[in-house]
Design brief:
Layout lengths: L2 H8 L4 H21 L6 H43 L9 E7 L2 E7 L1 H9 L2 E6 L2 E6 H10 L4 E3 L26
Helix pairs in contact: 3-5
Keywords: Coiled coil
Protein name: DUF2058 domain-containing protein
Organism: Aliikangiella maris
């Protein structure tokens, strides 16, 4: 049952008003067809605009979620790299001191490990409050992904003599006693 029929049955309108409204509706439609005028429905436009805004908002939320997931995956990769490539500290003989966010920290290492850290062959990384020693190649991989995990990496030192040594031409005697 149409709305017109319901209004007629309830006594809220008359049959003459219904026929007059229908004829006006037909006349407008005929004029629009004759002049090829498109009828714009404001409600339809508003609904389409709301749908477009909602779709844009959903895309932005999905981008944020994807960025968070990528960041989480990156952190997991870095943690796995550190934990799977950590080096043994050796038999603790020497204390190696380093700075972490302005605080002096220390770890007990062997002489060989101490030398490797000093020469840049090993670097110090941190996960939460735990420190790990990792090879330089792994440090470079970590630096590409998340440099905030790296605490210390020394530049590799060369064991070459300086070229501008003024005493390079002089031999040091073997029997020199101090």
């Amino acid at each position: 049952m149409s709305l017109q029929d319901q209004l007629l049955k309830a006594g809220l309108t008359t049959k003459d008003k219904v026929t007059k409204a229908n004829s006006e509706k037909r006349k407008k439609a005929k004029i629009n067809r004759k002049h090829k005028v498109e009828v714009t429905d404001q409600d339809k436009q508003a609904a389409e605009q709301l749908l477009a805004e909602k779709a844009q908002k959903d895309r932005e939320l999905n981008q944020q979620k994807n960025a968070q997931l990528e960041q989480k995956a990156l952190m997991a990769q870095v943690k796995q790299l550190i934990e799977s490539n950590q080096q043994d500290l050796g038999k603790p003989i020497v204390t190696f001191q380093f700075s972490d966010n302005g605080a002096i920290k220390q770890i007990e290492v062997s002489n060989l490990i101490h030398k490797h850290i000093g020469n840049g062959l090993l670097g110090i990384t941190r996960i939460n409050t735990q420190y790990y020693l990792v090879p330089k190649a792994i440090i470079e991989k970590i630096r590409q992904r998340a440099p905030e995990f790296i605490i210390l990496i020394n530049e590799q030192q060369q064991d070459t003599e300086e070229d501008d040594d003024p005493y390079a031409d002089y031999q040091i005697p073997d029997d020199l006693m101090w």
